[in-house]
Specification:
The protein is α/β, with parallel strands linked by helices and 327 residues long. It is 43% helix and 16% strand. It binds NADP nicotinamide-adenine-dinucleotide phosphate and ligand F7E. NADP nicotinamide-adenine-dinucleotide phosphate binds next to α1 and β5.
Amino acid sequence: MTRTALITGITGQDGAYLAQLLLSKGYRVHGLARRSSTADVNTMRLKWLGIENDVRIVDGNLTDLSGLSRTMRDVRPDEVYNLAAQSFVRSSWQQPILTGNVTGIGVTNVLEALRLEIPEARFYQASSSEMYGLIQEPVQSETTPFHPRSPYAVAKVYGHWITVNYRESFGLHASSGILFNHESPLRGIEFVTRKVTDAVARIKKGLARELRLGNIDAKRDWGHSRDYVRAMWLMLQQDQPDDYVVATGRTTTVRDMCRIAFEHVGLEMDDHLVIDPDLFRPAEVEILRGNPAKAKAKLGWEATISLEEMIREMVDADLARHSTARR
Ligand code: NAP
Ligand code: F7E
C-alpha cells in the first residue's frame, strides 16, 4: 500500500532531501509551505533535486492551527515530519517572539492538529543539538541535560518536551531527533558552512576578495543532510517511538572547516579571512560533539559522508552556481 507523508518545512534544506528520500521509497509526499509572493524562489531546492513536480505543496503556516487541522484532515498522512522552524540562531535574538511562536508553540499546533484529526499517524520532531548549549557533558547523548543559549534553542527545548509530553500523555507515536549540525549544497547561505563555500567560490572566480566571519574558534559536529534525513525516516519505522541523537561523533573548529574549503581550490585562507566582531553572538555555543551510539544500535544508522567530502561538494556546487549566474 502506498504510504503518505506530510513534511512541514518542505522548502528548506532537510525538507527537500527528505522529500527526495521518501519519493524514492514510493511515498506520496505532501509539503506544507508558507504562501509567498515569490513561489518560484520558494521551490528552488525541490527544483535543484528535480522533484518539484513530484510533491504536492499545501499552503499553510505553523502558527495557524485551523489550517493545520484542515491539512491533516485532507491529506490524512501516515507520517508527519515537522521540520518547519525559524532555524537561524542569530536571527532568534532579533526575532525572539516570532521564533518562540513558530519554533516552539508551532510544534504544539502540529501535535494538536495530529492528535485531534489523525492520532494514529506517526510524528517526527526536528530537535536540535543547540538545546545542549552550554554543554553539561563533553560528549552529548540522549541523557545529557539541556542548557540552551539562544531564543532559538529555548524554543527547541519547548518543542522537544512537548513532543515527549504528547507521547506520554496521549500515546502518540511521536519521536524526536536531536540532530547535530548538518549541511549540504542546499544549506541556506546565512549558515557558516555555506557562507564559507559560497565566498570561497566567489573569491576563486574573482568576484570577491574577502570572507568576514565571527567566532572561528567555535566547534561543531558537522554531518551531511542526505545522511541525516535517513535517520528521521528510520525513527518513524520503529515499533516504539523514542528520542535519538544523530551526529558524527567528531568535532571541528569553524577555522579548520574554512581551511578545508580554501585548500580545495588552492587558495590560502589567511590571505582572505577577516574577523568581524559584529558577527559574534550575544551568547555562544562554544563546542558540540554528539554520541550517535543509540542511533547506531537501534536504527542501524551511521553517518557515511565526511566533513571533507561534504565541504568539497559544497564548494564545487557554489563554483558551478557562480559559473552560470549572471554577473
Ligand atoms: P531551513 O532550511 O531553515 O528550513 C526551514 C523550513 O521551515 C523552511 O521550509 C521554511 O519555509 C519553513 N518555515 C519557517 N517558518 C515557517 C512557518 N511559520 N510556517 C511554515 N513553515 C515555516 O532548516 P533546515 O536546515 O532544513 O532544518 C530543518 C529543521 O531541523 C528545522 O526545524 C531546524 O530548526 C532543525 N534542525 C536543523 C539542523 C541543521 O543543522 N540543519 C540541526 C538540528 C535541527 P520558507 O522556505 O518559506 O522560509
Ligand atoms: O553557526 C560560528 C557561529 O549559523 C555555526 C542551525 O541549523 O545548527 C545550526 O545552528 C558556528 C557558530 O549554525 C560566523 O558563531 C562564526 O558558533 O552555521 P551556524 P548554528 O548556530 O550552529 C543547529 C544544530 C541548529 O539547530 C540550527 O537550526 O559558526 N560563526 N562566524 C558563524 N556563523 C554564521 N552563521 N556566520 C558567521 O559569519
